[in-house]
Design goal:
By secondary structure, the protein is of the alpha/beta class. The protein is built from 6 helices and 13 strands.
Length: 201
């Protein structure tokens, strides 16, 4: 069972619908007992970094989630803002991030001024490390909507990159902690396969 964490951020029903299509059992919850009972977690997020961190820290399950992820090593996947919250900080705000992956989140600063920010639309993802989250994908194409991207301090935490004006990290990993900058729930069969891979880990 995957617990889709409900802390007031993002269109979480669309994520649950995609898990259902992939044949993966999931639940949208903020209930501590349900979170403790879950095997894995999905950390969603749409919106600003500070608002996301404040909401997450105010949630009733914040302490429980930290224990389950950091001590019990249950897998977690952060999506879009959810991935950025896994880092130390963001140029978008002043709140400290979770710091579960040694990285920072910075705004796109593109030399090619013809490229719009936010980066919106379909883009190819290039897996850097062999990881089961990208298995069985005939093509690594995913849908992005973001103005900020993650810079890892340790290269071994980079799981995938993409290109928009220049190369940027779009997927991160450290042990049981995963993040993707793109939206699997908006990425049709490619996103469904990725969520299925996470569910079957």
């Amino acid at each position: 069972m995957i617990a889709i964490l409900d802390f007031g951020m993002g269109n979480i029903q669309s994520i649950r619908n995609m898990f259902k299509k992939a044949g993966i059992e999931s639940i949208i919850t903020s209930n501590i007992d349900e979170i403790k009972a879950a095997d894995k977690y999905l950390l969603p997020g749409v919106g600003s970094f500070d608002y996301g961190m404040i909401n997450l820290k105010k949630s009733s399950f914040f302490k429980t989630l930290k224990e389950e992820v950091l001590e019990n090593k249950k897998p977690i996947l952060g999506i879009c803002l959810g991935m950025q919250l896994l880092t130390n900080s963001s140029e978008e705000g002043v709140e400290k991030g979770l710091g579960w992956i040694d990285a920072k989140t910075i705004k796109f600063n593109l030399e090619d001024k013809s490229l719009a920010v936010p980066h919106m639309g379909w883009n190819k993802v290039n897996p850097v490390n062999q990881n089961s989250i990208f298995k069985n994908l005939e093509e690594n194409r995913f849908y992005f909507v973001h103005s900020y991207h993650v810079v890892c301090n340790n290269e071994e935490n980079i799981l995938g990159t993409s290109f928009y004006g220049n190369e940027f990290t779009c997927s991160i990993n450290k042990e049981n902690i995963y993040g993707v900058q793109f939206h699997p729930e908006k990425s049709h069969k490619f996103g469904m396969q990725l969520l299925k891979n996470f569910g079957e880990m």
